[in-house]
Design brief:
The protein is of the alpha/beta class. 34% of the residues lie in helices and 26% in strands. It is an enzyme of class 2 (transferase).
Amino acid sequence: MPDVSYLDAVRKSYDTVATAYFERVKSPAELDPLSRGMLDVFAETVRTAGLGPVADLGCGPGKVTAHLAERDVPAFGMDLSPAMIKLARDAHPDLRFGVGSMTALPFADDTLGGVLAYYSTHHTPPELLPVVFGEFHRTLIPGGHVMLAGHVGVGQHLRPTQAYGGLPVSYESYLLPPDGLAELLKQAGLVLTARLVEEPDEGAQRTFATFLARKPERP
């Protein structure tokens, strides 16, 4: 079994900042056109494929899950933080949310039509990303789709002590190069279909990237 003790710090940190996160983090409608457009491309792709439910992993308070549902995607959310899941359920009582970890998804093999990991894998130590991406592959129906999005870098290891208005956090973050993330997706058996790297605009400090991939059909 891999060492997933880091999850305790992630869970505690997001339980602490949940309300501030909900208030401060933008909804998809407020995102820049490229980011919003990639979400909508993913939504149309999984809706058109019609292969099954779509899991928004690391869903936080459910804003992106709701965005998918508004586009007729059969989406549900999962997050490590019980406080985040409570906010998501309160804000979107018509949608399904549950607590869980991407390192051991509580879904059977070949059951998901899509997986969305939107700014939710950067707390995973790089050596455990193959486990996470392997879980994506395991739970996807053949032909199912993945969207992975988040900040990228050149191998930075960040250890913030405060976030979201000065609240205490103890999680760590890892910013990997886009080529490295693409290779890890491929090693997990996923076929990369698109990649978008957005350079930081004025006032921003980090580059972020979006990857679209799919699980191959069986021969």
